[in-house]
Amino acid sequence: MRSLGIVISALLVAVTAAPAGAQDAAAMRREIEQLRQQLQGLTERLQRLETQPAPQMAAPPPAQPGPLAQSPANPQTQMSPPSATELLRPRQPFGLYQQRGSGQLLFDMGIAGDFVGSFTQHNVQKANGGTFTGRENRFFPREVELSLFGQIDPFARGEMRIESGEEAPGGEMNVTLAEAFITLLTLPYGTQAKLGQMRNRFGWSNVIHEHDLPWIDRPDVYRVFLGEEGLKEKGVEGTWVPDFLPFYVQVLGGVFNGDNETAFGRGLLTHPLATGRVMTFFDLTETQALQVGASVANGETAERLRSTLLGFDLKYKFRPEGWLHPLLTLGSEGIYSIRRTERGVDVDGDGSPDLFQKQTRNSFGWYGWGELQPWRRWAFGVRYDSTQFPAAPGYQWAVEPYVTFYPSEFLRFRMAYKHTDRSHPFDVAGNGGSARLVDELLFQATFILGAHPAHAF
Amino acid sequence: MSKRFCALVLLIVAAVLIVSEADGARKLRVIATIPDLKALTEAVGGDLVEVDSLSRGTVNAHEIEIRPSMMLKLRRADIVVENGLELDKWIDVAVQGSNNDNIVRGGAGVIDVSRGIPVLEVPTVRIDRSMGDVHPLGNPHYSLDPGVAPIITQNILEGLSRAAPEHRTTFERNRQAFLAQLDSRMGEWTKLMEPVKGSKVVVYHPQWIYFLTRFGLIETGWVEERPGIPPAPGHLVRLVRVMKDEKIKVLIYAPWNDEKLAERIAEEAGAKPLLLAAMVGGVKGADSYLAAVDYNVRTLSQALRQ
Fold first, then answer.
1. Contact B228, A324 (CB under 8 A)
2. CA A122, A127, A131 angle in degrees (round to 5)?
3. Among A326, A323, A274, which residue's Cα sits nearest to residue A300?
4. What's the Cα-to-Cα distance from A347 to each of A342, A357, A360, rounded to whole Å?
5. Which residues contact A107 (CB under 8 A, 6 or more apart)?
């Protein structure tokens, strides 16, 4: 009886399921037919699109007008001079980073690696008197730098660089903050302000990082007057570019802590390092240009003595019509130092100073440089350095011919020979070595990974 | 003394007022990054604008030397017209040196004409610099295609109107007049290129894709194996072989490309080296946008018919 029930139930299910299955099959066929038609339509549409050579000349959808375009009453759109209130009011951004999609960084990032090395005499190594003091006859990473830069908002731009490099043979490499600053871009009357830790715009080469310099080493005058890294300070710098002159002029003024131990070192805003610079530029012809600048830096040394640096700089470039690089570049920079120093006087003749007399010590240093780049991948140059010492007697001169090879814009190899002649025995290590005459073979490999901001002139 | 002083003050005030008045009526000062955009801005702006270009047609816009004299021009500019897509990314450095708050990125005075352009060669795979000087946002040389001039001029129109809304009607009228001219020339150019449609060409640098696509030509190879990187000898040997096999008649190059290399390759492959106006002013006679396109169309169609 139970088995009969099961059989009857199975028959009932089969009888009722058959028409439903037939209905499903018909629906599926209709669906397939619809899909086939849709596919055919899409195929035809694709073929039509492929046969069209390019987008049609139809006018595009109008670009999205910004908020100011919708408010004609806004003074900015009226070409009338803005009022002081208007100048102070933050501006509305127009499509900032409009081309960046989701998941993309809103700033740029790049890494620069700079490896250098030298071969020199044993006595120079012993005296630590080479170009890379304490790292003679070594190959080492001088500067590996991570840069992050971009717009903070519509009103300011930010840059941050951290770096590491070998400072002593085999020593630990510390990661340090090389630069971190913001630039306020929308200040009125052609002004901008930069605040944070930065390479100062003193002369034209001081602001350039080691890996971007046109030479393996920073010019002697900078290293002697401002230390191996040049002038790098924490503070505020303002610039003004007047628009009424027939040529470009940039006027700059800054206030900094004065942390640079070689030239200043007081390190207090109450006794700040004040800097200034005037830079101008002339297009001599379509292919030739000249940049001229004068700089000043005035602060106090750690001994609370006044120190003033006056600088000049020149740069000339000849880039023939249609060339992707300059054929000839000439440049020069000089620094005149006026520094108060203390001199010990031995009154009683016992060999030790009994009183200290203050005196003003003036010293001067400069370099001249020329580079010829007849081919895109190769450049040949020579630099002549001559400098006195700001706090000690004596002078040195050097000549440094070099050759540069650029496999690409982002990779560079450079080799130089440098001969340095000093007026006196030179022994930084203080262990009996002497580096009066120095002959060095210097070499450098530099790479750039990722983004790298362009440089002006 | 005090009367003289008062008179002097009045004179100065009057002078300032006159200058302000003159300033109010002055033309919009526009700086374009490349000559094509200068030409198109002049077409839209007409007499109401004073346009200057930061680069010339004979110079590669990728490799512009940023001179402070550019910063001076930008310092006085009301508007900057830029190509975008990273062709003229150097403008950011020049703008920053100009201290002109109106034209900083995101400012009201910036016109990026790439908005709305149907960009070609947008990378669909992960890219890096081993591929050469590739553009992550796509090929930026769209201004060579006269078919996108309506989009470019529309963007310019919007930007100019943002700065001077009272002149929008004039800008519209100028744009329509320019587009009418362009339309009639487009008919001529299409007719001229019709017989050579489907022809294969080799280019020095991949900057002609918009122009070639517009007229139905096929880019078969590049002299630069990777954009911006000088070619290796092995690549040139392969290129010459392909050119011979495919019977390619033309090698297109720009004024800043290595002319001798282009000539040598073309000679070895039995093709013709063809210098085209990569931008307005790139070759003699190509001194306006329409003239530059006209020069390119006529020169190329003639060379392909031979």
1. no
2. 85
3. A274
4. 15, 12, 21
5. A148, A149, A150, A151, A158
* Chain A contact present for B105, CB below 8 A: yes
Q: Do A54 and B145 touch (CB under 8 A)?
A: yes
Q: Is B21 on the interface with A (CB under 8 A)?
A: no
Residue A235 CA to residue A230 CA, distance in Å, equals: 16
**Out of B93, B100, B145, closest to residue A456 by CB:** B93
Residue B284: pLDDT band with limits 50, 70, 90? very high
pLDDT < 50 regions, chain A? 1-4, 6-7, 10-22, 51-82, 87-100
Task: State the residue for tokens 């060999």.
Answer: A351
Of B154, B162, B229, the CB nearest to A66: B162
- A78 contact residues in B (CB cutoff 8 A): 166
Q: Is A318 exposed, middle or buried (0-12, 13-18, 19+ CB in 10 A)?
A: middle
Task: For residues A79 and A448, give the distance between their C-alpha atoms in angstroms, rounded to a whole number.
Answer: 43
Which of B83, B79, B69 lies closest to B100, judged by CA?
B79
Global pTM reads 0.79
The CA–CA distances, whole Å, from A393 to A126, A128, A230, A263, A425 equal: 22, 19, 21, 16, 12
Cα angle A318-A320-A325, degrees, rounded to a multiple of 5: 75
Q: Which residues of B touch A80 (CB under 8 A)?
A: 24
Q: Is residue B299 helix, strand or coil?
A: helix
Contact between B158 and A63 under an 8 Å Cβ cutoff? The reply is yes
Sheet holding B218-222, edge to edge: B218-222, B200-203, B250-253, B272-275
pLDDT score recorded for residue B43: 97
Strand runs labelled E in chain B: 28-32, 49-53, 79-82, 110-112, 200-203, 218-222, 250-253, 272-275
Cα of A192 to nearest chain B Cα, Å: 6
- DSSP secondary structure string for all residues of B190-203: HHHHGGGTT-EEEE
Which amino acid, one-letter code, is at A107?
A: F
The residue written with tokens 């100009």 in the block is: B98
ipTM above 0.85, yes or no: no
Q: Which helix (H) or strand (E) segment is A387 a member of?
A: strand A378-388
Contact B150/A69, CB-based, under 8 Å?
Answer: no
